[in-house]
Amino acid sequence: MPETSVARFYDELADDYDRIYADWDASVRLQGSALDALIGQEGAAVLDCSCGIGTQAIGLALHGHRVTGTDLSPRAAARAAREAARRNLTLRTAAADMRRLPFPDGRFDAVVCADNSLPHLLTEGDVVAALAEMRRVLRPGGLLLVSTRPYDELLRDRPVSTRPQVHGDADRDGDGERTVTFQLWHWHDDGERYDLEHFQLHPADGQWRAQVRRTTYWALGQDRLTGLATDAGFAAPTWRTPRETGFFQPLLVARSGA
């Protein structure tokens, strides 16, 4: 999928991304705490190379880490910086492709690529290129944290939709901050890649206004992604479950080589 289409998807979603959550601030704190426990050191230099509007980056900054955020979407990265500033946090952000990170070698103690961002890359070559860049900017022994959807389960069933989620409150006329979000998945013939239609419905003047955004993912199973991380030079890649970590998605945890 052309990188511009992924950037457009998140540019269009940036203003409303927090409405995906029942309580975005609570999710920021919860996810930040889970990742902080895995990093296991104070004041780490952390790169969030798919920072979006800052869900994980802000959560880590709240724990005292020195966080830099990059994202393919300029609009999302700019919002992440604004949201951090509103909370009196320092978060440097920039628009960047994770396959071409604009940092010198060995710059960071940890690299985070969360919230199913890596599977926007649709070929093994692109995934290995991105992982190799993450390894390059890590110091020797630095920590990699990648989260994806639980694709081993999803590949068994190949769901065609997600359940609608309703967040927020409506006023007496039916308007207000209530948002309905759901997704439709259209699987490719290869059985691994799927086109996603992301629907958000907002009430306005007594009617529902629908926004539809489209993008594509690769349903990367855990063994396959583990192998690609090894190909990119990471040592001892292992998977940690949400039950183990408190993070909402499975996490691939690995170390850069010496």
UniProtKB/TrEMBL annotation:
<keyword id="KW-0489">Methyltransferase</keyword>
<dbReference type="GO" id="GO:0008168">
    <property type="term" value="F:methyltransferase activity"/>
</dbReference>
<dbReference type="Pfam" id="PF13649">
    <property type="entry name" value="Methyltransf_25"/>
</dbReference>
<dbReference type="GO" id="GO:0032259">
    <property type="term" value="P:methylation"/>
</dbReference>
<dbReference type="InterPro" id="IPR029063">
    <property type="entry name" value="SAM-dependent_MTases_sf"/>
</dbReference>
<keyword id="KW-0808">Transferase</keyword>
<feature type="domain" description="Methyltransferase">
    <location>
        <begin position="46"/>
        <end position="142"/>
    </location>
</feature>
<protein>
    <submittedName>
        <fullName>Class I SAM-dependent methyltransferase</fullName>
    </submittedName>
</protein>
<dbReference type="InterPro" id="IPR041698">
    <property type="entry name" value="Methyltransf_25"/>
</dbReference>
